[in-house]
Amino acid sequence: MTHCTDIRRDGHRPLLLDLFSCAGGAAMGYARAGFAVDGCDIADRPNYPFPYHHGDALAYLAHLIATGEIERYAVVHASPPCQHGCALTVGTNRSQGWGGTHKDLVAPTRALLDATGLPYVIEQPNGRAKIRKDLTLCGEMFGLGVIRHRNFELGGWSIEQPAHVPHRGRVRGYRHGRFYEGPYVAAYGNGGGKPSIPELQAAMGIDWTEVREELTEAIPPAYTEFIGRAAFAHLTASALEVAA
């Protein structure tokens, strides 16, 4: 499917589709960068701060493509479930025989995103997920209280990789029975010196949900605000090229 490169708008803001949206960490960053955001998640997400469709993300995207409704959007962001390729699953959990099997949704997500003809972003944590690491971001780049490395594949556009900032110390918590202090909190799991909900909210820059599961799965909004500002500039430059 081929689209023109005008900036599609909802009111005065280009519209971004946020797939596998969880509680809206990514969405909030894009909104702060200037986008209107629609989400989609298979779980009920009453804390999601923007309009969203409750349903299967890939089925919904396929429907939008088939009906032509995808043309309302300027950019698509997708954070497909990462358990198949995340470092914890392929490392400790799998070596110990813990956990079940997980589907890898990255490839089918990419295939549908390519079919939209729109610029897109696929986000995954460190691990073996098969995405291009066009961009890697870390909480220290934005002065956050989490490290939380995340990789991003960019389809149909590009962004300059910022320099990785050296970490200031350890992640606070227990390691092999010993407690360590540090400037960062662990944004995953529970117990073992993990942060309180208020500490996790402050470290991530998220204040609209108090659900630990949602906080530990979220992307810090600072990441996608950075990406969103670059995407907005890309759309504007593309529109100017067409106009010329």
**Taking Cα atoms only, what radius of gyration do you get, to the nearest Å?**
18 Å
Tertiary shape: globular
Global structural class: alpha/beta
Count the DSSP helices. Answer: 7
Task: Say how many strands there are.
Answer: 10
Helix content: 25-40%
Spell the H/E element sequence: EEHEEHEHHEEEEEHHH
Range of strand content = 15-25%
- The low-pLDDT segments are 1-5, 85-101
The major β-sheet equals: 8 strands, mixed
The first-to-last residue Cα distance is 23 Å
Calculate the mean pLDDT score and round it. Answer: 88
Protein model, in words:
Helix 1 packs across helix 7 and helix 2 (57-67) packs parallel to helix 4 (106-116). This protein starts with 8 loop residues before the first strand and ends with a helix. The protein contains seven helices and ten strands. 32% of the residues lie in helices and 18% in strands. It has helices spanning 25-33, 57-67, 87-95, 106-116, 197-204, 212-217, 221-243, and strands at 9-10, 13-19, 36-41, 52-54, 75-78, 120-125, 135-137, 150-155, 173-175, 178-180.
Q: What's a quick, concise take on this entry?
A:
This protein has 244 residues and is α/β, with parallel strands linked by helices.
Highlighted features:
244 residues, alpha/beta, 8-stranded mixed β-sheet, two-stranded antiparallel sheet
Helices, strands, pairings?
Layout: E1 9-10, E2 13-19, H1 25-33, E3 36-41, E4 52-54, H2 57-67, E5 75-78, H3 87-95, H4 106-116, E6 120-125, E7 135-137, E8 150-155, E9 173-175, E10 178-180, H5 197-204, H6 212-217, H7 221-243
Parallel strand pairs: 2-3, 2-5, 3-4, 5-6
Antiparallel strand pairs: 1-2, 6-8, 7-8, 9-10
Helix pairs in contact: 1-7, 2-4
